[in-house]
Each structure stands twice: as structure tokens, then as C-alpha cells.
Design a protein that fits this description.
With 579 residues, this protein is of the alpha/beta class. It has 18 helices and 25 strands. Helices cover 35% and strands 22% of the residues. It has an eight-stranded antiparallel beta sheet. A seven-stranded antiparallel beta sheet has the order 5-6-7-8-12-13-14, with helices on one face. The protein has a five-stranded parallel beta sheet with strand order 17-16-18-19-20, with helices on both faces. Helix 3 packs across helix 4 (137-145) and helix 7 packs parallel to helix 13 (386-402). Bound molecules: fructose -6-phosphate.
Length: 579
């Protein structure tokens, strides 16, 4: 998704810092990029489509704005890439978000020369109009920003000053020894500084030789207070791995261990779940599947009903929330707008909010009443792996805490961490399977009960990294339609744990086998119905964890076999901050 990085300081290395900052947020996904810096009272802009180059030519400047774009309004072209300038190249802007009323605002810009198809460019021309009258950049930016509908962040410079505003789109300020930097993701700032301020909605930051932050509505200045953030930069680099996805899969046993060593906040949240009048787990994509798994876990092991909704659908079923409801919002990035929006609506109804997130200081983290950090470390591969395992682990721990059996939860999680290590040790056993199915166009993943969310997550991982059409199904649903798609040789993965689903899922495996499917069995015991079997030891309630890891490794290996970069699936972004 779009990324912003901006620097102002007294050293002349602003363009280099901007290039480095954009490289650190590359993982979020983008299709074009641009860097602008002031040079001899003029702005010089370098833009291109595709990925950033390995190096950036040395340029001397104290002010620079950079952007990585993920196209929404207008195609992937150099003209549409940011930064954008006014008609005279005196003002420069980068923008994240969508200006929803841009067509209406554009109508007033007939005298301007628009060079792109973007909603972003109209912002800088509107600011140009205001600035030509007042020569005051801060008031011009604030006036124009207040006209925008939608969730946006903009950063504007005239070469001597940087002015930034945000509403609903993340922006973080960092303090350098000789200046300041701004970014849409703290991961771009943390290599440079540990002193950060997470800018709140409807605030304006003005940076020149000094820093002011003010409220856009009241115009009052806000006390500037930097937070010191502890961060291990080395852990966010590839180290000896070729791809982040491989590194992050390998980190998973450690992620579980960290969760088990930091369970105090989970204890508090378990109490809230016990006393709430209705608990709602919400999230998107992979996080939604963790939430769905939560409903099965709570029902089976804590005998408690909890509700689940996809984040983008929760808005439409929120009418029954009351101040006694508890909303547990699950999001790796803590910035997914489809999760944040319903959280805000629930907050307006005075519900209590729990953020289960991997990102300290994220919008969700700051919005929530209770903050359950996943502590999985930065996740850079677009396809989520270790964050999902962290979410599942927290769900298991919370379930057993609510059931008053925390130690039992700890034991099954420890077992699953050991089993992940076994799977990783035996990963080469999957090579034969990869060779067999890499050229297939369709793969089906089946599970029942707790294995149903695993089937959904497996299919999502395979889709993202391999572009093979993969479908996750509740196995019982197969005969209600999808069975028509099973033909000779269609790979069907069946999850067969040692639980109440075992006999029924084996019967479903026989159904697909009878239609010619190539049946891939995953679980503790082999069975004659399987054409290929991958053994995963029984880990009780935690079997969902090693079962998912099987699918992660398979998806990763399939991507490599197909010559694809598993870290950067086409069309996808790491953090989805638009609706
Ligand atoms: C899939 C994946 C996405 C995210 C989804 C929500 O591998 O990563 O489906 O899970 O976009 O993201 P977060 O968890 O950041 O809210």
C-alpha cells in the first residue's frame, strides 16, 4: 500500500535518507515510486514505475519527500507516481489515502495544469491557490485538508518547511539529531531514531527549524512529547535467509515461546471476555481466519459462545452492540481500514475494544482500551505467517484462561512449537508433492471444525504465493456444490486431526477420491485413502498450528518451484489502509 517518507534537517543527506526510508517500507507493496528534493531553490523529482533501484545517486539537499504508490486512482504510470507539484514546481506533495470528493474539488481547478489522473494531484493545486493568496504554507495546507472527505495523510513542502496533516491514514514523526523525519510506517523511522510521535487524526505537524503540532479543528498547539521505542533493527533484516517468508516461518517456534513468556495482558483480557455481554472477534483475511478459529476454540474448550465477523462486514451487523459488548479486533498491522472503521463505530457505541495486533503504536493499538501485542517481530513478507501463528496462539491461550485451565493451554502450545520444528526439519519431504502439483490450476483444502479455518488459511497462502486457484472448504459443504469441480488428478488437501472430525473428514476424502482427486492427508495417522501423507503429531487444541505450518511451507515451496518471489505477490499490499 502507499508509503510516505519525508525528511528535513541541517545535513545534506535528505534524499539518501528518503531512499533508505522507502526501501524499509517496500514490503508494504507498491507499483511505482518517486523522490523529490530541493536543489538550488528548485525541486528535482526522480520517479519511476516498478521497484526501487538498488542504489540512489548521491544528491545534496536538506529537504526531501518520497513516496511508494499502490495505484487506486489512475493506472501505474510515471505521471501518476508521487510526489506531485503545483503548476510552478514551487510546492510538492505526497499523499496516502483516497480523497473521496476529489471530483467535486477538481471542478474549481480549471486554470491549473493537471499532469496526472490522480486524486492526490488536485490537493497540491488547491494548496497552490491558497498559498498564492496568503504565502502561509501551514494555513493553506490546513484549509485544503479540512475540505477532504475520506481517510488521508498528506505531506507538503515549499523547500524550507514541511507541513503534514492526517485523518485515518497513519503518520509517524521521528526526531533525528539534526532534524525530523515523517513516515507512514514506523519501520522506516526506527533505523534512524528511537524517538517517535504517532500523529493523531486531525493533527497538523509543521517542521522547519522547530517543530509544532496543532489540532486542525481548534488550532491549539499540542504538547510535543516523543516516545522512546525499543526495536531490534537486525531482526527485521533477512539475515541468512533468501526470503522473508522463509525467515518468518522459521521464527514461529520462538513467537510461541515469547507469547508464553508474556501472558499478563492476556489474563486481563480473558477476564473481560468472561464478564462481557457478548464478545465479537473481528479481522480481515488471515486475521479473520484466526478469529473464526477463536469461535471453535472457545466453544469446544471454554464452553463459551463468542461471535465472529469479517472486519469489512461488521459495520453492517453492528446494530446490536451495547456498552457491555467487547470487540476484539485482530490485525497484524493494526492499520487495516476494514477493521479500524467498525472498531470506531463500536467505540462510538461505548463498547470496550481489545486490539490484538503486532504493531506497537498502530492506529488500532492507540484506539483500543486493552492492547494485546503479538510480539512476533516485524513481519515483512506480504503473505502473513508468523503473525497468524501468534494470533492462533493468543486465541488458544485466551480460551484456556477463560476455561480456568491456563496450564493446559501452555502445554498444548509448547507441543505445537516442538512440532513446528519437526515440520521444518522434514520440509524436504514435501518436495515430491511440490513437483507433483506445481502445474495444477486448482487445489482444494478441506477441514471440519477447528480445521476449517486452517483449510481457509491454507488456500489463501497457496493463492497468494503461487497464483494457483485454491479453495478452502468446510468438508461437509463439498457435496453441496463444489464436488462438481473435482476431476481426475485435482489435488485435495484434507486435514485429519485426532478429534471428533476424524471419521467424517475421512469419509469426505473417500468422496473426492471416488471422483479421481489426488488426496493429500495431513495429520497424525496415515490412511489408505491418502495418495500422499504428511505426518503431523497430535497437539490437541493446538494441532491447528502445525497443520497451518504444513500449508505455509507448501505454499512457499510451490512459489519457488514456479519461479515466483514469495515475498511480493502481485496486486497485494502488506497493510491495506483503503476501503
Ligand atoms: C494474507 C494476509 C492478509 C492480511 C489482511 C489483514 O496472508 O496477510 O489477508 O491478513 O490484509 O491484515 P492485518 O492483519 O494487518 O489487519
Amino acid at each position: 500500500m502507499c508509503g510516505i517518507f519525508a525528511v528535513i534537517g541541517t545535513s545534506n543527506n535528505a534524499p539518501q535518507l528518503t531512499f533508505k526510508g522507502l526501501s524499509d517500507i517496500e514490503y508494504r507493496g507498491y507499483d511505482s515510486w518517486g523522490i523529490c528534493f530541493s536543489s538550488d531553490d528548485l525541486f528535482k523529482t526522480i520517479k519511476n514505475i516498478g521497484f526501487l533501484p538498488k542504489t540512489f545517486p548521491e544528491q545534496l539537499s536538506q529537504v526531501s519527500l518520497g513516496h511508494t504508490r499502490w495505484a487506486t486512482h489512475g493506472g501505474v504510470t510515471i505521471a501518476n507516481a508521487h510526489p506531485h507539484s503545483d503548476c510552478n514546481n514551487e510546492l510538492i506533495l505526497v499523499h496516502n489515502g483516497i480523497i473521496e470528493n476529489y471530483l467535486e474539488l477538481k471542478a474549481g481547478l480549471r486554470k491549473h495544469l493537471l499532469k496526472s489522473e490522480t486524486d492526490s494531484e488536485i490537493a497540491i493545486h488547491l494548496i497552490e491557490d491558497e498559498y498564492s493568496k496568503s504565502k502561509d504554507l501551514s494555513s493553506s495546507v490546513s484549509k485544503v485538508f479540512s475540505k477532504f472527505d475520506g481517510l488521508n495523510a498528506i505531506v507538503v513542502t515549499n523547500g524550507t518547511k514541511i507541513v503534514a496533516c492526517k485523518k485515518g491514514s497513519p503518520l509517524v514523526l521521528g526526531k533525528l539529531t539534526d532534524g525530523y523525519c515523517l513516515a507512514s510506517d514506523p519501520n522506516a523511522l526506527l533505523p534512524l531514531t528511537d524517538k517517535l510521535i504517532f500523529i493523531e487524526d486531525n493533527q497538523m505537524v509543521v517542521l522547519n527549524d522547530k517543530l509544532t503540532i496543532s489540532d486542525l479543528k481548534t488550532k491549539k498547539e499540542i504538547q510535543v512529547k516523543f516516545t522512546k521505542v525499543i526495536w531490534d533493527y537486525a531482526s527485521s533484516t533477512l539475515q541468512n535467509y533468501e526470503y522473508f517468508m522463509e525467515k518468518e516461518i522459521n521464527e514461529q517456534p520462538k513467537v510461541i515461546e515469547t507469547i508464553l513468556n508474556n501472558s499478563a495482558v492476556a489474563e486481563k483480557i480473558a477476564k473481560e471476555i468472561k464478564s462481557a455481554f457478548g464478545t465479537y472477534f473481528i479481522g480481515c483475511g488471515t486475521a479473520a481466519y484466526a478469529c473464526l478459529a477463536g469461535t471453535y476454540l472457545f466453544s469446544k474448550f471454554a464452553k463459551k459462545h463468542v461471535n465472529f465477523s469479517i472486519g469489512s462486514e461488521f459495520n453492517y451487523i453492528e446494530d446490536y452492540l451495547t456498552p457491555k459488548s467487547l470487540v476484539v479486533a485482530v490485525s497484524q498491522s493494526g492499520e487495516t481500514i476494514d477493521t479500524i472503521e467498525p472498531v470506531n463505530a463500536a467505540k462510538a457505541k461505548k463498547c470496550k475494544i481489545v486490539a490484538m495486533t503486532n504493531t506497537l503504536g498502530s492506529t488500532l493499538y492507540r484506539t483500543a482500551d486493552y492492547k494485546l501485542l503479538l510480539n512476533a517481530g516485524v513481519e515483512k513478507a506480504v503473505a502473513s505467517t508468523k503473525a497468524f501463528i501468534a494470533m492462533l496462539s493468543e486465541m488458544i491461550l485466551l480460551t484456556f484462561m477463560v476455561a480456568g485451565k491456563k496450564q493446559a493451554g501452555v502445554e498444548v502450545l509448547k507441543k505445537s512449537a516442538l512440532e513446528i520444528k519437526n515440520i521444518l526439519k522434514n520440509a524436504n519431504l514435501l518436495d515430491e508433492l511440490v513437483n507433483k502439483i506445481a502445474k495444477q490450476e486448482h487445489i482444494f483444502c478441506l477441514g471440519r471444525g477447528l480445521s476449517y479455518p486452517v483449510a481457509l488459511e491454507s488456500a489463501l497462502k497457496i493463492k497468494e504465493t503461487t497464483y494457483i486457484h485454491a479453495e478452502g472448504y468446510a468438508a461437509g459443504e463439498l457435496k453441496h456444490g463444489p464436488l462438481a469441480l473435482i476431476t481426475k488428478g485435482t489435488p485435495v488437501i484434507v486435514y485429519v486431526p485426532n478429534d471428533e472430525t476424524r471419521d467424517s473428514i475421512l469419509a469426505n476424502a473417500k468422496e473426492v477420491q471416488a471422483r479421481g482427486a489426488y488426496v493429500i492427508g495431513v495429520g497424525p495417522d496415515n490412511n489408505p485413502v491418502f495418495d500422499f501423507f504428511f505426518k503431523v503429531k497430535d497437539c490437541g487444541a493446538s494441532s491447528v498450528i502445525p497443520h497451518t505450518v504444513f500449508a505455509q511451507v507448501l505454499a512457499y515451496k510451490l512459489a519457488l518451484k514456479k519461479g515466483l518471489n514469495p515475498d511480493k505477490p502481485r496486486n497485494l499490499a502488506k497493510s491495506v489502509v483503503v476501503r
